[in-house]
Every structure is written in structure tokens, then in C-alpha cells.
């Protein structure tokens, strides 16, 4: 399923790396940046999330809640978050339901792995409407963080 700009963001509840449930609809009233990433501890994913970590003040100034999502287990994500000192939640979509709902999943990834999150970015406004959607074909590419920040600025 492809998520269109202007559509309602599919709601979800996932566990974060601290074993707490996070529900998207509970975050209404603030902007949300969802970042789907293929796998913890890989080079491009680490680069992407470290960039977000290092620019968290900018996202905070824009009143944006950042959530990283992958199909890794909560235990893997906890170690990844600790090792890289991420300052935002990492959510486990181990059952692949949310990645599928957002059209952010590879049928087949490297080494014949099935059902890995596709690198993607979605900005959701305070009412739960998608204002930015970017689903990348290549896992080696990074989201357009300039466009993401411009979208967040416009809806802040």
C-alpha cells in the first residue's frame, strides 16, 4: 500500500527498545517524523540515525517527535540505541505489520532476507495527516532531511 500525502496516517502500536508500547494516535497534537530503516548496526542505517541524533535540537525546535522503526527485535534495538546513544525511540515492527501498512517493506532484501523495512520517511501533522512521504528504492540512499525539515517547519 502506498501512503499518499494528505491521507490519514495508519495508526499503530509497537514496542520500543525500553519494552514500552508506543501508539501513534496517542501522539496527536504534535508533529511526528517516522523513519523506517532496514537493519540495526548496518552502515547506512547508523549514518542516518546518527545524523538525526546529532540534529535532535532542530527537531525539538520544530516540536517534532522522532520515531525510528525497523523489523529488528526490541533487544537488538535496545543494544543499537545504547551503542549509538540515540536520543529518540526505536520501535520494533518485528511482525512487519506497520512497515507493510506504510508501503515501506522489501519483499526481498540482501542475502534473500524477506520482509525487511524499506528506508522511508513520513511526516505526520498534529491531526494525524501525512504531510511528507518518501519511500526509497535503494537502501544505500538517505531520506531528504532538508525537505523533511522544511515540511516540519511549514506545519509547526
Annotate the secondary structure layout:
Layout: E1 13-16, E2 21-23, E3 31-36, H1 43-54, H2 56-61, E4 64-70, H3 74-84, E5 90-92, H4 97-101, E6 105-108, E7 114-117, E8 120-124, E9 130-135, H5 145-155
Parallel strand pairs: 3-4, 4-5
Antiparallel strand pairs: 1-2, 1-5, 3-8, 6-7, 8-9
Features:
alpha+beta; two-stranded antiparallel sheet; Glutaredoxin; 29% helix
State the helicity in percent bands: 25-40%
- Terminal CA distance: 28 Å
Which stretches are low in confidence, meaning pLDDT under 50 for 5 or more residues running?
A: none
Secondary-structure content class: alpha+beta
* Biggest pleated sheet: 7 strands, mixed
Overall domain count: 1
- Given this structure, which CATH class is correct? Alpha Beta
Average pLDDT metric? 94
> From the alpha-carbon coordinates, what is the Rg to the nearest angstrom?
14 Å
Amino acid at each position: 500500500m502506498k501512503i499518499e500525502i494528505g491521507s490519514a496516517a495508519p495508526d499503530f502500536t509497537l514496542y520500543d527498545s525500553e519494552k514500552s508500547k508506543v501508539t501513534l494516535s496517542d501522539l496527536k497534537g504534535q508533529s511526528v517524523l517516522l523513519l523506517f530503516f532496514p537493519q540495526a548496526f548496518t552502515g547506512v542505517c547508523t549514518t542516518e540515525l546518527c545524523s538525526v541524533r546529532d540534529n535532535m535540537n532542530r527537531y525539538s525546535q520544530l516540536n517534532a517527535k522522532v520515531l525510528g522503526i525497523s523489523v529488528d527485535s526490541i533487544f537488538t534495538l535496545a543494544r543499537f540505541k545504547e551503542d549509538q546513544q540515540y536520543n529518540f525511540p526505536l520501535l520494533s515492527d518485528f511482525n512487519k505489520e506497520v512497515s507493510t501498512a506504510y508501503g515501506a517493506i522489501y519483499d526481498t532484501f540482501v542475502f534473500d532476507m524477506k520482509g525487511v523495512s524499506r528506508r522511508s520517511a513520513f511526516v505526520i501533522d498534529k491531526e494525524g495527516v501525512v504531510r511528507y512521504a518518501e519511500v526509497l528504492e535503494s537502501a544505500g540512499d538517505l531520506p531528504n532531511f532538508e525537505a523533511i525539515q522544511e515540511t516540519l517547519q511549514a506545519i509547526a
